[in-house]
From TrEMBL:
This is Transcriptional antiterminator, BglG family. The keyword Repeat applies. Residues 63-168, 169-275 form the PRD domain. Pfam families: CAT_RBD (PF03123), PRD (PF00874). PROSITE patterns: PRD_2 (PS51372). Signal peptide: none annotated. Keywords: Repeat. GO terms for biological process: regulation of DNA-templated transcription. It comes from Pseudobutyrivibrio ruminis. The lineage of its organism: Bacteria, Bacillati, Bacillota, Clostridia, Lachnospirales. It comes from the Bacteria.
Length: 275
């Protein structure tokens, strides 16, 4: 395959037979190479395939130290393997960019305070643990020690890639989840068992619930008979879900459907079951 553009000694832009632009990286892959030269396939360590190469990612690859690109890739790969799912390609831009700035700030002793750290630790426990592991990889491979706040930031990038969402909405989500949990606690005047399986399932449901809210794509109503049964079976949980509905409709333009109310009611009934 022929080089279309030399990004630096360790990265090249080329095209496949379908016209897709591909970024190839590898230590010294472009050393003394020019556009039109053949790539040595045995030097290729990573490929990034896109229908059209993203200019921001091209800029990152061409300007960031190769070791940092490798570390970002290792963090993403580890997160994907542990979550058991393929993450949205955009994480290669967002997380890599964040890593570069975090390392740059650390050199001047400047660190960002993560105001959502408590919420992230409590509502995105798996992703937070992946963020902590990211800090270990960075320390081991780059010799840079970043504070716990950065584990929270990396966790948000992972959450965003899981949901294929907008990072700004993803950063708002922990606060919204916290508000919803507060509504449940206030309605029932109880503390919730945060170690229970039902609580964990509810938090997972809320993550995707907020993704649907962001996209104006709530579940469509299915069987109204089932919704009526749930309302009668769990009146207190339905009352709580109604409060959440009012709160959500103050945040998002789309009205909650009966199907969304059904799921909220069932989850609330589960996490507040005193028996």
């Amino acid at each position: 395959m022929k080089i279309k553009k030399v990004l630096n000694n360790n990265a090249a832009l080329a095209s496949d037979e379908n016209g897709n632009e591909i970024i190839y990286t590898g230590c010294g892959i472009c050393f003394q190479k020019r556009p039109g030269d053949e790539l040595e396939e045995n030097k290729i360590e990573k490929t990034f395939v896109m229908e059209k190469a993203n200019e921001q990612f091209l800029k990152l690859v061409s300007e960031m130290p190769y070791e940092e690109i490798q570390v970002a890739d290792e963090i993403i790969k580890y997160a994907s393997e542990n979550l058991g799912k393929r993450l949205c390609n955009n994480i290669y831009i967002t997380l890599t960019d964040h890593l570069g700035f975090a390392i740059e700030r650390s050199k001047s002793g400047t660190f960002l305070k993560n105001k959502l750290l408590w919420e992230i630790k409590n509502y995105y426990k798996v992703e937070y643990n992946l963020g902590c592991h990211a800090l270990e990889i960075i320390k081991d491979k780059l010799g840079v020690e970043l504070p716990e706040d950065e584990a929270g930031f990396f966790a948000l990038h992972i959450v965003n890639a899981e949901l294929d969402g907008n990072i700004h909405h993803t950063m708002e989500a922990p606060e919204i989840i916290d508000d919803i949990i507060s509504i449940v606690k206030y309605t029932y005047k109880i503390d919730l068992d945060e170690d229970s399986f039902s609580y964990e399932r509810f938090i997972t449901h809320l993550k995707y619930f907020l993704q649907r809210a962001e996209r104006n794509a709530y579940y469509e109503p299915q069987d109204p008979g089932i919704f009526e049964i749930i309302m009668e079976r769990f009146p207190e949980a339905y009352n709580c879900a109604t409060r959440i509905k009012s709160y959500m409709e103050s945040k998002y333009p789309e009205k909650l459907t009966d199907e969304e109310m059904l799921y909220l009611t069932v989850h609330i009934a589960r996490i507040t079951d005193r028996d």
